[in-house]
Amino acid sequence: MTPVETENSSAEKPIHYPLTWRRGAAIILAASLLGVLLSLAVLALVNRSLRYALPSDVDTLNARVDALESRLKAAEQENAVLKERILVLEDLAERTTKLELFALRIQGEIDKRVDQAEELKKNITVIQDSLGNMITQHNGIQTFINSLRETWERVFPGTPAP
Q1: Which among 2, 5, 26, 141 would be 20 to 30 A from 124, CA to CA?
Q2: Three-class SS of residue 15?
Q3: How much is the mean pLDDT over the chain?
Q4: What angle do CA 148, 150, 154 make, to 5 degrees?
């Protein structure tokens, strides 16, 4: 088909292409049908190679999924329990640290008191030695006084000693 020219009063004449759009529409329609047929052929080939699961396989798979879900829930619960235990242990560790520091302070005080007790023991030993010397001196003085009384009674018989 050739283009048909129509006469116009203007200098330029438009060119018309009759039936060309029909040809284009037919080509597009044919290409679309060919594409659909090709797609259906590929899907049919893929469908032949697919193997579908048996209902027993699906049930087994569902049972496994359920078992995994229950194990996951149990693991999550155990994880929560472990987190709680960790928090308790952290609290106990903090308390233990405080108690250890307190025990160190008390041990320091005990060491001071032991040093003081040793010093007091030395002082008591010194006092006991001094007391022993005083007792010895007292005994010596008492012996001297007794001998003076005896001498008094011999010199002044019957007169009481002052």
Answers
A1: 141
A2: strand
A3: 87
A4: 115
